[in-house]
Amino acid sequence: MRRSFLAGVGMTPFGKFPDQTLGSLARKACFEALKDAQAAPQAVEMIACGCARSGSLQARESGVGQLAGWEVGIQGVPVYNEKAFCASGAMAFNVANLAVTAGEHDIALVIGVERMSTRSGKGRPLTSDGMVLEGEQGFTPPAYYAMAARRHMEVYGTTREQLAAVAVKNRRAASLNPKAQYRDPITIDDVINSRPVAGPLHLLDCCPTGDGAAAAVIVSERGAELLGIDPQVEILASIVGSGYYANQRRDMTTFELDRHTAKRAYERAQVGPEDIHVAEVHDSFSIAEIIHYEDLGLCEAGEGGKLVESGDTSLGGRLPVNPSGGLLNRGHPLGATGVAQIVELADQLRGRAGQRQVPGARRALAHISGGFQEGDFATSGVTILARIGATES
Question: What pairing do the DSSP bridges indicate for beta strands 363-370 and 379-387?
Fold first, then answer.
């Protein structure tokens, strides 16, 4: 397999933009990424696009990638449209990276886009996440993660304040991110006293809906030569997995699928959790970040609550997690999120994250989960990036 690199990234602000369309959001992110890569649209050899809800929300079941290509003037190239719930953007990134490392293409454009604030289509409930019958009976993502939180608290002694600390930490980071959806500071009390959703989770423990797009340009060494650039970020691993459903019925305090996917990513990248300097993880709910710490090997099982409480995962800590503000505060337009994580980490590794810059960051990890890991629709994606020259240090 060939080496692959990030040549450029871009994204829109995340928020609620009723005057925007899937096409206009994608266009802005793509042009920013192409400019960053010093690439003309005509240089792109393939497109991979992640968009989870275009059918149920926008009455456009397929062709979002083709629409995005048309918006920026790309014609005649293969386009892959990926749907994997929250992991749709990560799946698109994985498909493009596979095409580049396999030698099929040298310059690939990845797009993640979603428009959730305005609904123009008809379909199943937004919260069903593929489990239609269960969703209609109330078994939604907030309900599932609420049960996971209660179980984690019972088994490991995780406290309500530790859950709230995730939201507070990530809001503090989001306050430094001009593209984040929510940036006003909050406190532990604010989280605990916000509107109950599914006990013990309250409103500020839960990610918002919104609109947005993110894009990335992946190149091979030959692609970099064609563009006349020296990429600064290498893609060490892009791994996607599914399966391991039965384990969730035995233990709701861990996601075996994420453990398996992370293990494969570390092996591919030839690094371990101790080699990661900054991470973006799937904090769709405050408890999710705590569980993901453990499953990604950032701490031992049951230690996630103590880890966030220690400040180690805050900006300025030993291993900052979600310096963008995460899903809880940067926002979570489903298909855009996986690519937005890559944008943030690329900026961190290139030293251009502004006030939220993690000093000396050389290796970064992105993680996202899609669908119910309790049901038959789960997808897990783990990407590991490195600043060029960092793999030997």
Answer: antiparallel
Residue with tokens 């973006």: 280
For CA atoms 47, 17, 84, 149, the dihedral sign is positive
- The tens digit of pLDDT for each residue in 209-253 reads 999 999 999 999 999 999 999 999 999 999 999 876 556 567 899
332 is catalytic: yes
- Predicted structure pTM score: 0.94
DSSP string, 86-122: BTHHHHHHHHHHHHHHTTS-SEEEEEEEEE-SS--S-
pLDDT-derived band at 138, boundaries 50, 70, 90: low
Catalytic-labelled residue, pool 260, 277, 282, 332: 332
Q: For residue 202, what are the β-bridge partners? A: 196
Active site residue 207: no
Can you tell me the distance from the alpha carbon of 130 to that of 370, in angstroms, rounded to the nearest whole number?
10
Q: Which residues, in sequence order, are CB contacts of 94 under 8 Å at separation 6+?
A: 238, 239, 240, 381, 383
Q: How far is CA 361 from the centre of its chain?
A: 19
Task: Please give the pLDDT value at position 52.
Answer: 86
Name residues whose C-beta falls within 8 Å of residue 295's C-beta, 6 or more positions apart in sequence.
254, 255, 258, 259, 262
CA-CA-CA-CA torsion for 153, 180, 218, 257, nearest 10 degrees?
10
* Catalytic-role residue among 86, 206, 207, 299: 86
Omega before 200 within 30 of 0, i.e. cis: yes
What is the rounded CA–CA span in Å between residue 377 and residue 393?
A: 39
